[in-house]
Design a protein that fits this description.
It is built from 19 helices and no strands. Helix 5 packs across helix 11 (214-230), helix 5 crosses helix 17 and helix 10 crosses helix 12. The radius of gyration is 21 Å and the shape is globular. The chain has helices at residues 12-15, 22-34, 37-44, 60-68, 78-108, 111-119, 126-140, 152-171, 178-181, 187-207, 214-230, 242-253, 261-277, 286-294, 297-302, 309-327, 333-352, 366-375, 386-389. It has one domain (19-389). It is mainly alpha-helical. It comes from Amycolatopsis orientalis (Nocardia orientalis). GO terms for molecular function: oxidoreductase activity. It holds the Pfam family MPAB_Lcp_cat. Residues 124-323 form the ER-bound oxygenase mpaB/mpaB'/Rubber oxygenase catalytic domain.
Length: 391
C-alpha cells in the first residue's frame, strides 16, 4: 500500500479508516510486480483444510504469510467456540435467513463500502457475493473451525489476500482519493462488517421472533471477534463484550448509514436475485417485505426497498406466529419444521440455483450436514426427513 497522509488529531477508531492490512498488502504488491497472481491463485484454490500442508510451490513471501497467519490468537477459548457451533447447529438456517435479508442489505447502507463493491466488478455480483459470504459463515461455524479437521483458516487467509488485492487495484485506479476517503476496505470498514455479521444478525433474529439466549449471543459474537483478529483487525479495536459491541455498532456502523446510488443499485440487484428464487409472480413483494422486517425503516427507505402493504401485513403476521412457534419448538417437531422453512428455502436456493440456473460451489461442512440431516433441516438435499417433520 502507498503511504497515506493521515489527518492529525484523529481518534484510534478514526485512524482505522486509513489502515489497510500491511501483511497481506505487501504480499499482493510483490505478486503483482512479479506477475505471478494467476499462478498463485491456481495453487491456493487447492488449499482448503487447516490440516493441509502449506503448498511448496508458492513464492516465499506467500509461504511466510500463510505460516504467520496460520494460528488463532492465544487467548481463544475453544469451549466458547464449541458452544457457538451448537448454537449454529440449532439455528443455522435462521442465521442464514437474517444474514441474507438483513446483513447484506445493511452493508449496502454504508456509502463508502458500497462504492468499493461497485468499483470491484467481481464483488458487484449478488449471487457471487451471497455464495461467498454464506460459505465463509458455514466454514466459520464448523465444529472446530480453527483447529484440526476444520477448514476455516485457509478461508480467512485467502479472504485477506482478496481484500488486499481490492485495495491495491482501487487505490491505483484513479477513482479513489485515499487522503479524502481513507483506504478502501480499511480496518474501519472491516470492523463495521464484523459488527453487521455478528451483532446485527443476533438483533435481526430476535426481531424476527427467534429466541437467542444471552449466552448464545455472547458466544456467537465471540467467535466473530476471534475471526476479526485473524482477518487482521486490531484486537484492541474490537469490543470484548456483546454489550460494548452493540454500542459500537450504533455509534460506528448505524451512524454511517445513508443513501447512495451504489447502495441502491446493489440492493436492487440483490432483491432481484432473491425474487428469482421464488417461483412464479404471485409472491413478488414478499422478499422486499421480509427485508423491511429485518432492517430499519430508514435503511429500507434509503435503499428504495419497495413497499407492499399486503405483504407487509402478511410478513408481520408471520413473525407473530413465528414467535408462538418458537416458544413451542422444543415440544413440537411440526413447529420446528414450519419455523425452519424460510431459512431452508433461502439457503437451499443459494446452494442450488442462485441465478439463471447457475449452480454454486457452496458446500456444507460434513459434521453440520450430518446433524442437519438428522434433524431433517439440511437445505442442501432439498428434502426433509418425514419422521422429523411429523408432530
Amino acid at each position: 500500500m502507498p503511504e497515506t497522509l493521515e489527518p492529525p488529531g484523529l481518534s484510534a477508531l478514526e485512524r482505522l479508516k486509513y489502515q489497510g492490512d500491511p501483511l497481506a498488502d505487501a504480499v499482493i504488491a510483490e505478486l503483482v510486480a512479479d506477475e505471478r497472481t494467476s499462478a498463485v491463485n491456481e495453487v491456493l484454490a487447492q488449499f482448503r483444510d487447516n490440516d493441509q500442508p502449506i503448498p511448496e510451490n508458492l513464492p516465499e513471501s506467500v509461504r511466510r504469510y500463510l505460516i504467520e497467519t496460520d494460528t488463532p490468537p492465544d487467548w481463544v477459548d475453544l469451549d466458547r467456540v464449541a458452544r457457538a457451533y451448537e448454537f449454529f447447529v440449532d439455528d443455522g438456517v435462521h442465521v442464514a435467513s437474517v444474514l441474507s435479508f438483513g446483513a447484506m442489505v445493511n452493508c449496502y447502507a454504508q456509502p463508502r463500502p458500497s462504492r468499493v463493491l461497485s468499483l470491484t466488478h467481481r464483488l458487484n455480483q449478488p449471487h457471487r457475493r451471497l455464495s461467498e459470504t454464506s460459505q465463509f459463515v458455514l466454514n466459520l461455524m464448523g465444529p472446530d473451525p480453527f483447529g484440526s479437521g476444520g477448514g476455516f483458516v485457509p478461508t480467512i487467509q485467502k479472504t485477506r489476500l482478496i481484500h488486499a488485492a481490492v485495495r491495491y487495484f482501487i487505490t491505483r485506479s484513479g477513482d479513489w482519493d485515499v487522503e479524502a476517503d481513507g483506504v478502501p476496505l480499511c480496518q474501519q470498514d472491516m470492523l463495521g462488517a464484523l459488527l453487521i455479521f455478528s451483532v446485527q444478525v443476533i438483533d435481526g433474529m430476535r426481531r424476527m421472533g427467534i429466541t437467542v439466549t444471552d449466552r448464545e449471543a455472547e458466544d456467537y459474537y465471540y467467535v466473530w471477534r476471534v475471526t476479526g483478529t485473524m482477518l487482521g483487525i486490531p484486537a484492541e479495536a474490537m469490543p470484548e463484550t456483546l454489550r460494548e459491541a452493540q454500542e459500537l455498532n450504533a455509534g460506528l456502523v448505524e451512524a454511517s448509514y445513508g443513501p447512495s446510488a451504489e447502495g441502491i443499485e446493489l440492493t436492487r440487484n440483490l432483491l432481484r436475485l432473491y425474487e428469482n428464487m421464488v417461483p412464479g409472480k404471485a409472491f413478488d413483494g414478499v422478499v422486499a417485505a421480509m427485508v423491511r422486517q429485518v432492517v430499519t425503516e430508514d435503511v429500507a427507505d434509503w435503499l428504495e426497498v419497495p413497499r407492499s402493504r399486503g405483504w407487509g401485513r402478511a410478513v408481520g403476521a408471520g413473525v407473530r406466529a413465528m414467535r408462538l412457534l418458537e416458544r413451542s419448538e422444543d415440544r413440537s417437531r411440526m413447529a420446528t419444521a414450519v419455523l425452519d422453512k424460510a431459512g431452508d428455502l433461502l439457503l437451499g436456493g443459494s446452494v442450488r440455483t442462485l441465478t439463471d440456473g447457475q449452480s454454486t460451489t457452496l458446500t456444507i461442512p460434513a459434521d453440520l450436514r450430518e446433524k442437519w440431516l438428522a434433524a431433517g433441516v439440511c437445505p442442501v438435499t432439498g428434502r426433509r426427513d418425514r419422521a422429523a417433520a411429523s408432530p
